[in-house]
């Protein structure tokens, strides 16, 4: 969980949501059972989401205060996929700002069951966050929580290309 002094490592975690905000595979499949039944009850009236949309809920039994549910595009079906994925990250950051959230953790949205290629998704995610960072007022820390070495390497490559002196 990565908490210090009993506090979670981040205030909010992003959920790679399904359209109906129900448990699925990947991040949504892990978040919903861990959060308990209150999450499903709270999010039911917020569904359905369209690709690129994001909504906020409480975290219930999770160690964070908030969950920001983001529906990323299904690669090759939801078009224009790059704009929809960018919108998902922007809208998640917007929800975080609206709710005075200081820190958020993102998975690699749309790269699992939704089939988005890792390098392209990493480029969109990192560029969107870096572009938004100077304009954020309450969000101070963005973390990417990635599944596996391939996702980590893709994000490292892209970050090095975007910010060569970092």
Task: Name the descriptors.
166 residues, alpha/beta, five-stranded mixed sheet, disordered N terminus
**Which ranges are low-confidence, i.e. pLDDT below 50, for 5 or more consecutive residues?**
1-5
How many DSSP helices?
Answer: 5
Shape: globular
Main sheet overview: 5 strands, mixed
Q: Radius of gyration from the CA trace?
A: 15 Å
Strand arrangement within the widest β-sheet reads: 2-3-1-4-5
Report mean pLDDT, rounded to a whole number: 92
Percent helix: 25-40%
DSSP strand (E) fraction?
Answer: 5-15%
What structural class do helix, strand and pairing data support? Answer: alpha/beta
Terminus-to-terminus distance: 26 Å
Helices and strands, in order, run as EHHEEHEHEH
Number of strands: 5
Record the SSE blueprint:
Blueprint: E1 12-16, H1 26-35, H2 37-43, E2 54-58, E3 66-70, H3 81-98, E4 103-106, H4 118-132, E5 141-144, H5 149-162
Parallel strand pairs: 1-3, 1-4, 4-5
Antiparallel strand pairs: 2-3
Helix pairs in contact: 3-4, 4-5
Task: Give structural notes.
The structure is a single chain. The protein has 166 residues and is of the alpha/beta class. The protein contains 5 helices and 5 strands; from the N terminus they run βααββαβαβα. α3 (81-98) crosses α4 (118-132) and α4 (118-132) crosses α5 (149-162). The protein is globular and about 45 Å long. The two termini are 26 Å apart. 42% of the residues are buried.
